[in-house]
Amino acid sequence: MIKPLTLDELYEKKLPRQPGTIQGGVGQFNVFNYEDFIGPDPKPVPYSRREYYKISFLTGNTRYFYADKAVEVKNAALVFANPMIPYNWERLSDNQSGYFCVFTEEFFTNFGAIRDYPIFQPGTTPIYEVEPEDIEEINRFYLQMIEEINSDYAYKYDLIKTLVIQLIHKAIKLRPAESSLYSQSNANDRISSLFSELLERQFPIESPVQRMKLRSPNDFANNLSVHINHLNRALKATMGQTTSQLISSRIMQEARILLRHTNWQIAEIGYCLGFEEPSHFISFFKKTESVTPRLYRTK
Questions:
Q1: Does residue 94 or residue 52 have the better pLDDT?
Q2: Does 206 share its domain with 146?
Q3: Are the beta carbons of 61 and 74 closer than 8 angstroms?
Q4: Which segments does the entry list as coiled coil (predicted)?
Q5: Which residues of the chain form beta strands (DSSP E)?
Q6: Which among 182, 203, 234 is the end of a domain?
Q7: Range of the domain at 219
């Protein structure tokens, strides 16, 4: 896998760093117009993780690659990227425009936990298609961010944080069913949330020597200090699947990512994902995809 891109590396390689956008000790923030640096013939962006958050708004035909998924948007979309999941995008039309902002988690210190919003949670699809009547409103959010960041207003970063939060809530309202993920009002929700956090903490796999440590339902139950039957009931009630199904689904997602975006050997990928023998990984993969990992990679 390509090494995660830091925000400083992003500035050095592609973006102009505006005065006053680097906040010593309290994180970083910046906002840009895509047209200022895309150019007439942009080069493909590597599929990789970034060590920062990014909220993009693009109009035009675009294909987004996120985790093991590919989503094509015909008109306009808000896209929320976080440091946990690799991604990139491909321009499919010439008439593209829009904005994006980048920031570190530290930028929101004492302003709420940015990672707790459902759009940054594992398992969601953080691509929100925008209807034509909403485009102007979203453009205004970014234009106001640009206006504030170029101002000498003493509290401009507090105002910018508020604008980012408003943008997040605008997206959640576009897909209100997912806002239920933000509610953790009972024991089942709390257990499911802790399970998901433990599972996702093991990913992404970024080296052939990195290996999953929590692999079986019992591993997770012991780590959470609950009985395996209790864990199964909680996950079934809140997520609709058993512990084994959720673990297997996430392993398959990572397997597809590694097969697509690395040149590691099949045995190395199986080892990283907790399989003692390559044959066990091949059988596991074929049961879900109906093809071997090698054939999946060549396709």
A1: 52
A2: no
A3: yes
A4: none
A5: 29-33, 53-59, 62-66, 69-73, 76-81, 87-91, 97-103, 127-129
A6: 182
A7: 187-298
